[in-house]
Amino acid sequence: MANFARANLETLKKTASYYVMHITVAAVVGYVVTGNLWMALTLSLVEPTVQAVAFFFHEKAWERVGKRRTLLTQAGPSGVPA
Q: The pTM is what?
């Protein structure tokens, strides 16, 4: 697990900051809509938690796409990287 965290530290940091921002926005919106602080906090934890996990895998997929594009750009006429 420690190797996983080290290998993905930048994406995990980005995911954590996104999570905090998302919970804050969701709590404020939830409170404005419901007028109930407890309900707003409860609702604000469910959806952003699922979104944070999805965001992590979304970032990893885009990293893979970027690496693949780089390899294709560097590939010679035979399709093999130079």
A: 0.55
